[in-house]
Amino acid sequence: METNNSKKFTQKYLLTAAECNPEREMPLTLVMSRIIEVATLHANAWGVGYSKLIEANQGWVLSRVTVEMTRYPRVNEQYSFTTWIENYNRHFSQRNMEICDKDGVVIGGVRTIWMVINYATREGVDISKLSYISNNISDRKSSVAPQGRLHMVTEATKSTSYTFKYTDCDINRHVNTVKYLELLMNQFPLEKYDKQLVRRLEIAFMHETRCGDTVEVNLNDNDGLDCKLSVDSGRLSHCRARFCFSPR
Amino acid sequence: METNNSKKFTQKYLLTAAECNPEREMPLTLVMSRIIEVATLHANAWGVGYSKLIEANQGWVLSRVTVEMTRYPRVNEQYSFTTWIENYNRHFSQRNMEICDKDGVVIGGVRTIWMVINYATREGVDISKLSYISNNISDRKSSVAPQGRLHMVTEATKSTSYTFKYTDCDINRHVNTVKYLELLMNQFPLEKYDKQLVRRLEIAFMHETRCGDTVEVNLNDNDGLDCKLSVDSGRLSHCRARFCFSPR
């Protein structure tokens, strides 16, 4: 049982019309933005957000995200994100989330893996001494199955070249998490999203990409309901993903 | 003097690290998102937001936006948007905004022109009978100079072809305002933004574009501090803009 409220953080939202996708629902890119936002808000609530780490020229970055949605919030609908930390080790912190509709019915779940990097060396930092993490581990589990191993797509059914632009890049001067996801989502046509929804997303951010870098986006959609993607430069993957679709 | 608080709406924000551009400031695309958001929140406060218009298969769309910023909010900084309606006629509603830092110092201003379209016919709707507008006209003026006439760029210094993708499109199934702005901003390299900021933006949305449409993005930057752009299909402009830069 949790006795400390600081272990759990909930934020409520309203899905505005301007935020919706063509299916009049919450876009998966907005789910990703909210994941980053509630993690930030939770850390801010402990007094250990951005401003604390940046003093040491460090910052949290997302390493892996797994999302499962039974349905997405619809236009003008209220929804909430609740987050807690399940586990951590020297290198990674595992943060879970639950997405509910306005009646508290669970409509989605999220598993995320975060690390702290040093902006100067671009390397991971030992987080085992961050007491605010160890003090806030929750015994609550996630209903989402852990992410499987994601492979580079070598037998692509479609390969597209893409050069990252100014608005793709963030405060770290590398490509933003949400922009990778947009690039991956844009490998499928509007018509597919009209017929199917992304029931499960697995994505791993493996190697940072800078503004102006050109990559290959490789897709294997031999199984249209279980598509694999990777964003690669030669033999190096910047990002790998799996999109599991369900008919609407 | 204003006596009715419903004529003025203020929303406070904190600029999180995940929202920042490579210059560690509020991106112009986020300014645009906030413009749409506070207008929506103000309309919701009157009880006449999205849900009211959609009953008649209608919705507000942005027609013109002019932004002037003396500086942009920086990472972890609080800022606010205040909005009011200055004027309206049968076809257009003119909504102004003021952007302040946490001490109330004005750091930017916005003029916007909105119209209501019928989603079935894609044509403008007579808004002169919407009493919630006439009841909420403010006598407060904008410090931002009105938008000048924007022309199609015919003598381009750079022309780029672009095909709109799934994540570029919104609930109306046409290209999202923010995505046009991203496309225009991406015509300039990161290095330009490191040295200069967009002091004034003028943008007009002229003709809707659909998912899968291919356009030409035309730029004239003969004057590097006063650049003109247009997003065109043949002799038709979908969007025209002017970016006035200042050295940092």
Spans of chain A of at least 5 consecutive residues whose pLDDT stays below 50 are: none
The rough form of chain A would be described as globular
Q: CATH homologous superfamily of the largest domain in chain A - what is it?
A: Hotdog Thioesterase
DSSP strand count of chain A = 10
Distance linking N and C termini of chain A = 37 Å
Beta-strand percent range of chain A: 35-45%
CATH topology of the largest domain in chain A: Thiol Ester Dehydrase, Chain A
Helical stretch tally of chain A: 5
Helix content of chain A: 10-25%
Q: Give the C-level CATH assignment of the largest domain in chain A.
A: Alpha Beta
Mean pLDDT of chain A: 93
* Count of all domains of chain A: 2
Largest sheet of chain A: 10 strands, antiparallel
- The oligomeric state of the chains shown is homodimer
N-to-C series of helices and strands of chain A: EHHEEEEHEHHEEEE
CATH architecture of the largest domain in chain A: Roll
InterPro entries (chains A, B): Acyl-ACP_TE_C (IPR049427), Acyl-ACP_thioesterase_NHD (IPR002864), FATA/B (IPR045023), HotDog_dom_sf (IPR029069)
Keywords (chains A, B): Fatty acid biosynthesis, Fatty acid metabolism, Hydrolase, Lipid biosynthesis, Lipid metabolism, Transit peptide
Protein name (chains A, B): Acyl-[acyl-carrier-protein] thioesterase
GO molecular function, one term (chains A, B): fatty acyl-[ACP] hydrolase activity
SSE layout and pairings?
Two copies of one chain form a homodimer.
Chain A: E1 9-14, H1 28-45, H2 50-54, E2 58-69, E3 78-88, E4 93-101, E5 106-118, H3 131-134, E6 158-163, H4 177-185, H5 190-195, E7 196-205, E8 214-220, E9 226-233, E10 236-247
Antiparallel strand pairs in A: 1-3, 2-5, 2-7, 3-4, 4-5, 6-8, 7-10, 8-9, 9-10
